[in-house]
Model the fold of this input.
Amino acid sequence: MIKKITIFLSAFMLICVTSLATAGERNEGITCINKGSTVKAVYDKGSNGTLIQKNIKVGNSYKGGSCMGRCGGGCGWGAPSAWAKDCLDHDICIVDQNGQNGLATDKNCGDEFRHAADDYTFGVLRGCRG
Ligand SMILES: [Ca+2]
Done:
């Protein structure tokens, strides 16, 4: 019995340590956000750096970037768009760090781009239409 508990605790500790090791900007699954609401955007410089957080009004322009929080570049062309938390994080990173939109290889915003990929692909189907 004690041995079982020890194994369980070790596994639990391992999971805790693993999640600490992957600190930095998080993938938040497909979390819908609504235009007009204020949401805290979070990204990091590089891929495991200090978090930078900004309160952003979803759908507004920010430092020359438009439609913050919409998945995909700018405001799109009228097709249904997904609006999601990971896309907002990526948008703000791109604008702040002068990153290249739509690239997983961007040195600062590539990890945010990867986190936003599921939102971009499935956001509309999941009902994240702003
Ligand atoms: Ca980053």
Observations:
- Residues 23-122 form one domain.
- Residues 2-21 form the longest helix (20 residues).
